[in-house]
Amino acid sequence: MPLTDTAVRNAKPTDKAVKMFDGGGLYLEVSPSGGKWWRLKYRYGGKEKRLSLGTYPDVGLKDARDRRDQARKTLADGIDPGEVRKTEKAAKKAATLRTFEAVANAWMTKSADDWDDGTHAKVRASLENHVFPTIGGMPIADVRPADVRELVQQVEASGARETAGRVFQRIRAVYRYAVAHELTDADPTYPLKPAEILKRQTVTHRAALSERDVPAFLRDLDAYQGDSGTRSALRLLMLTAVRPGELRGALWEEIDQTRALWRIPAERMKMKTEHTVPLSRQAMELLASLNPDGEAHGLVFPSPFYPGKPISDGTLNSALARMGYKGTATAHGFRTLFSTCANEAGWPSDVIEKQLAHEERDGVRGAYNRASWMAERTKLMQWWADHLDALAKGAKVIPLKTA
Questions:
Q1: Residue 268 appears among annotated catalytic residues
Q2: Domains of the chain, residue spans
Q3: 194 by DSSP, 3-state: which?
């Protein structure tokens, strides 16, 4: 006798599982704990099998009968409905493993060895905040170019233009990983170009001295009445053209007095690659004045206020402001001054870029450059120190093209 809604609703558990049959192999199994399961009994390949059709009350009697009828139709076509169910589950599991978020997590795990903790945290935060809420749950193969474009433009519209650019590049990196690991065939970022989907950015360069301003600046620097260590730091910054952060963290043990070289470790470099700076005669004399007995250790430019700490980020620029150069010169701008003067004097651009630690992305070429340009860079930095001396004396300096 077929089941009724009332009979199903009123079915009570006993100390053993109870089976209440409806017809066509469908029955309701009531467990001792009170759970009610719809099941289908059928035969395939000469074997008796069972197929779960859901639980009551989530699946009512009518829905259970519809599922039974669909399963029996599949069986009539010569297909095992149980195998169909397994295939569907496997497909759903595969889809879950291939969502954008899952693939992005796999990419971050693989890339973690190449990143420091800070970089890893920034990448993860940008994806969790800006990407996963929108496309994280989508199968990676289903994301369209329009989805990426709209997502990136929404980030930009929030006022975070630079973040939007970084988010786009990280989405693109995830897709490179996905294609390489055969998790998708298409990369929706391929037809998109940042310049076409983001608004044009107005670049504001750091204020930098021009060559004609150098003589007056050097006189003002010599007359600076503030901390003498800060004055020396500004002078060495000009002579070496390193980044301010690299100079602030300089340690005496990094200075090779014999070979006149300064080796800045990778962890303090922007590109995380060790950088060797040739030191001119004038740079060595300045360092000698700071360490006359040659026995100093630790920081070359320690904070005058906090023992064991370097001078702060704002120390150098604050000194420039007190000298009257606020808005016209910055500590980082000395790199621009060096680059402009060296290029105008005809020094090879590759040598200048290497001295500025603009790392070559090609590993083989970069290794060759490290081996072959030290002699040229040593000549360049001595020329630069002599050039600054000539400017300080007010000599008329005519740039000469170098070989």
A1: no
A2: 5-91, 100-197, 213-392
A3: helix
Q: Could you tell me the pTM of the whole model?
A: 0.50
Inter-residue contact 81 to 75 (CB < 8 Å): yes
CA distances from 34 to 9, 10, 28, 60 (A): 12, 11, 12, 16
Strands 255-256 and 47-56: unpaired
- For the domain made up of 100-197, the CATH class stated in words is mainly alpha
The predicted-structure confidence for 352-375, as pLDDT tens digits, reads as follows 888 998 765 444 444 444 444 789
Q: Which residue is catalytic, options 67, 149, 335, 354?
A: 335
Q: Is 377 a catalytic residue?
A: no
Q: At 144, is the secondary structure helix, strand, or coil? A: coil
How many Cα neighbours within 13 Å face the side chain of 372? 8
Topology (CATH level 3) of domain 5-91: Double Stranded RNA Binding Domain (3.30.160)
User: Which residue in the list 98, 235, 243, 268 is annotated as catalytic?
Assistant: 243
pLDDT at 92: 66
Phi, psi at residue 293, to the nearest 5°?
-95, -5
Q: Which of 227, 221, 165 is nearest to 192 (CA)?
A: 165
Q: What is the per-residue pLDDT across 16-63, written as a single tens digit (0 to 9) for each? A: 999 999 999 999 999 999 999 999 999 998 899 999 999 999 999 999
The span from the CA of 356 to the CA of 402, in Å, is: 19
| Catalytic one of 19, 206, 259, 270 | 270
